[in-house]
Structure formats: C-alpha cells, structure tokens
Amino acid sequence: MDEQIREQIALARFKVISPVLAEPGRKQNEYLRKQAEREHLMPHYGTKRYAVSTFKGWLRKYGKEGFDGLKPRGRSDRGRPRRLSDENLAVIEVRCKAFPELTIKLLYEQLLAEGQLGDPPIGYNNLVRIVRQHDWLPGRRRTDVRKRFETGAVNELWVCDFMHGPMVRTDRRRAKAILCAVIDDHSRMIVGHAFAASETVAALTVVLKEAFGLPKRLYVDNGPSFSADLVAKACARAGISLIHSKPYDSPSRGKVERFFRTVRDRFLAVVETESTLNELNDAFTVWLREDYHHKNHRGIEGRPIDRYHASACRVPIRRMSRSELDEIFLVRHERIVNN
Question: How confident is the model at residue 81, as a pLDDT?
Fold first, then answer.
C-alpha cells in the first residue's frame, strides 16, 4: 500500500470522527453508535460497516499521534506464515470436540505449550476467529449485570456457595461431588474449599473450620445449609456478621459464581473422570496453588496470592485456635433419659 493510499484512508477516517473530537464521551458514544449502523466508503477497502470499538480506536490513535495515527500500518508479521496446517486444524477440532467445556483462552494456552499453533505460532485472536468460524465450541454469553463492588481489605467479606461437580467414586457407590468454596472479596483468594458427597451443614462446617482466619462478614444464599441454626450460632460466637442474599439472586454472589465458572473451564474440563473424592480434592488443591492463585485476575489486575499478602501485611488477621473452632461448631443435642 503506497503512501498516497494511506493518506486517503486516514483522511476518510478523520471525516468520520471529526464531528465529535471535542465532545464529551457520552456524545461521542451516541454519535459512534449511529455511525456503526451505516456503511462507509473507504479507499482501498471499499464499502463496509465498522464497529463502535473501531471508531474509538481511531479516536485514540488520533489523540496520541495526530493525523499520522489514522494511517493504516503494515502488518508486523508480514512475510511470516499466518495460516495453520491441516494437521494443526485437525488437532484443534479434535480437542474442542473432546472437551466442549474448554474456554478458548485455556485452549490457546494448551495448544501453545504443545506447539500446535504453527511456527511461529498464531495469535490468540486468530484462534478465536478460527474456532468461531467453524463453530467448534459452543458460545456462551453473560446475562447478569451488576455494578462493580469491592471491599478495601482482606477478610472484610467472604462469599460462600456450593457448586455441583462431577461424579466420583466413594466407598460404596458413585456420587456427585459438590464443591463448597469460600472466596475473599478483596483478593479473590479461595480461603476455604472442599469437595464433598453432599450439600450439608457438615460439609460447610468442615470448610469454615479449615479457612484462613475469620471474616467480618460472611455472605451466603438462603439454602438449608446456610440457614441452619448451627451456622448462625457459630457466627454469633465468632463475631461474624452473617448476611443472606435475596432469594434467587445469584448475581449478587457474582465473584464466587465467576470462580465456579473458572473451575468448570480450567479445572473440571481437564480433570480425570471417575476419580475418588480424595483424589479430586488433592487435584483441586494443587490446581489452586499452581494455577488459580498465581494467574493474573482481570478483576484485580494482578494475582490473588499477591493481593492477599499485600493486604494481610496492613490489617490484623483474626484467628481462632482449633479447640475454639471445635467448640463453636459443636453440635449440641438435649435428650431426656428415663431410668
């Protein structure tokens, strides 16, 4: 593409964004949405529609680099292969069909580690385009909308919930493993967790007794396990504010629900089937330690383990001894014995 064509394209782009260069963001968005609904004639590219994000990209480039920023640039991978071989495509297709619950991000990480993305490897966006073009993985779209909320330090708020997992082998039968997980709202650390064969108060008690420290608030739903008197009394003795969400309002527990999605996408999608309950718990502990807690979390723009320790250095961590925890979670029954 010669310099004259590049200037013509830059000029055409400028004509589109120029009416709102000096306007506030709200007016810019309204204008750009209208522009996205119509077709635009661009030199070299012809007539086509553009997304709002494309127009915003032009605005950003113009604001940083001026008119030259609107000129199309040559590809950084010019002269390098940008297509996958038939063998690579076959591997991607087989992997997607074998693990339909995989996210494209995890799929990309696995294929990149195995050297199945070409030499040099294609980028993440190219893999997204290929998978969606062939419809190899089912699409998923979020429907819940919530405003951003976050506490200022660790252990100010824990959110706890259950998630139904895979079938596992127990001593006598096959049963569904149910994960009970407690997430710290500030750091996104999983401070308590365990797979059990039932969704009971006993399973919840095991997790809470093994958790790291004590929270100021415990946010749960209205299920039978969380509504039990034992949980309320234990929180009362430990000085924990027990808060129940509104009925059928799972988005209010969005952080733990989002974590459960990560568990399904990154852990359960690759875990061995028909394992025992102990094997599943051991594998989950390793996965938390080596993957989740040490991966960058987009919600906090960092690793959960780093954010937890950074906050724990600034605030006191409340703890109780093992004997004290056994006492507050002790199940008491009164019986009358007739001699």
Answer: 45
Q: What are phi and psi of 300, to 5 degrees?
A: -120, 0
Q: Which residue do the tokens 């129940």 mark?
A: 244
pLDDT of residue 77: 52
To the question of pTM greater than 0.70 for the whole model, the response is no
Residue 217: both structure tokens together: 């608030």
Residues 6+ apart with CB under 8 A from 324: none
Which tokens go with 26? Answer: 């709200």
* pLDDT at position 31: 93
Q: How many angstroms separate the Cα of 55 from the Cα of each of 40, 52, 60, 62, 113?
A: 12, 5, 9, 11, 35
Q: Which residues pair with 276 in a beta bridge?
A: 169
Beta strands in the chain (DSSP E): 40-42, 46-48, 158-169, 174-184, 190-196, 217-220, 241-244
Mean pLDDT of 157-174: 87
Report cis status (omega within 30 of 0) of the bond before 251: no
SS3 category, 335: coil
Q: Quote the pLDDT of residue 146.
A: 60
Supply 326's token pair. Answer: 């056994």
User: Would you tell me how many other CB atoms lie within 10 Å of the CB of residue 310?
Assistant: 14
Residue type, 309: H
Give all strands of the β-sheet with 158-169 in edge-to-edge order: 190-196, 174-184, 158-169, 217-220, 241-244
- What the chain holds in terms of domains, given with CATH numbers, is 3-70 (no CATH), 86-134 (no CATH), 158-328 (3.30.420.10)
